[in-house]
Amino acid sequence: MGIQKSGKGLLIVLSGPSGAGKGTVCSALRRQAPEVVYSVSATTRQPREGEVDGINYFFKSKEEFKRMIEEGELLEWARYVDNYYGTPRRFVEDRLAEGKNVLLEIEVQGARQVKEHFPEGVFIFLLPPSMKELYARIRGRGTESEEVVEDRMTAARKELDQVHQYDYVVVNDEVAKACQRIRSIMMAEQSRRERIFREQPDWLEGF
Amino acid sequence: MGIQKSGKGLLIVLSGPSGAGKGTVCSALRRQAPEVVYSVSATTRQPREGEVDGINYFFKSKEEFKRMIEEGELLEWARYVDNYYGTPRRFVEDRLAEGKNVLLEIEVQGARQVKEHFPEGVFIFLLPPSMKELYARIRGRGTESEEVVEDRMTAARKELDQVHQYDYVVVNDEVAKACQRIRSIMMAEQSRRERIFREQPDWLEGF
């Protein structure tokens, strides 16, 4: 978008507590903003019907995944139950070098890892419409035990505490509005003076 | 727009060197973004045909204008040839308190004065499509003396040096694109975590 054509792309990290609707917002963004590159995660879980390697996920064996961790090939990773999930660093760095904007939709823990490698990333914290709604989503359909609900509440509170590590807070009151806010953030960040001159200190001379 | 409904509006300062097209961009924004309040300047010059007091300008006598300066009623002011121009503080502060976003389209010198009063404002530096274009505009129709052109060049260079005081740099390559960038900046700034929590430190609790 104009000003940064010759510079690196933006790394946009979309995160927030479970139940904020990250996946839904990200799917809508994929349709509305196809010029953005959406990072593909690596996982050790089995492909589901119709899932394609390199499109939905990079499917890896556990041995391969552990090797990637050891060799620093992942920007962030986590283990859920029996499977590993993570973001391959190479794919992200190559797209950024091409000047593409890359969006990662990841958990709060992963976002913290990414921030260590990419402090210049744009960190967006997505929230559900209200705290009441967040708790309702955590409580689910009322089929979970009190203990499970309590654990999830504790986890959500910890995630919410991370808001102060983020650049932006976007409320997902309506998916279309949340997408519009995120797209505005991407456009605005490309005009940030600090970012332009950090990438190209003599930008004004070449202008 | 959602998140900041209960907070103060944004003060957006659109400035940049003479010849950047501030007036043209601002006129286009007025049509596209009528929800934004456009500040009305005070001036001592005579109203032109069709100009309405309180709409195009607040028309003031020189005595009244000097009194406003002395009593701190202007956010910024300057004298051009025989007339004074300035931005009445009260109008801006009242609209901001109502939660409205207010846009000031002013000269670089004035923007510096505003920044002293409103460091939390959003400062946007508008540039023409290229340095070559800027110099062409300064040179004008070639009817000015070399001395006049040289003075204007010196002034433009001083104005360009001020870019580092600004939050955003927007290139006016096309008026429609410049407007879109400015509107994105306004929307994005309303989602900035720092801004939300500065205005409402306990925002998350009330959420």
TrEMBL record, chains A, B:
Pfam family, one: Guanylate_kin
Sequence ranges assigned to domain Guanylate kinase-like in this UniProt record: 9-187
Catalytic reactions of this protein: GMP + ATP = GDP + ADP
A GO molecular-function annotation: ATP binding
EC number, as in UniProt: 2.7.4.8
Residue spans crossing the bilayer: none
Keyword Cell cycle belongs to the record: no
Keywords for the protein's UniProt record, in alphabetical order: ATP-binding, Cytoplasm, Kinase, Nucleotide-binding, Transferase
Source domain of life: Bacteria
Cellular component aspect of the GO annotation: cytosol
Record-stated family: Belongs to the guanylate kinase family.
Listed PANTHER family: GUANYLATE KINASE, GUANYLATE KINASE-RELATED
Function: Essential for recycling GMP and indirectly, cGMP.
Name assigned to this protein: Guanylate kinase
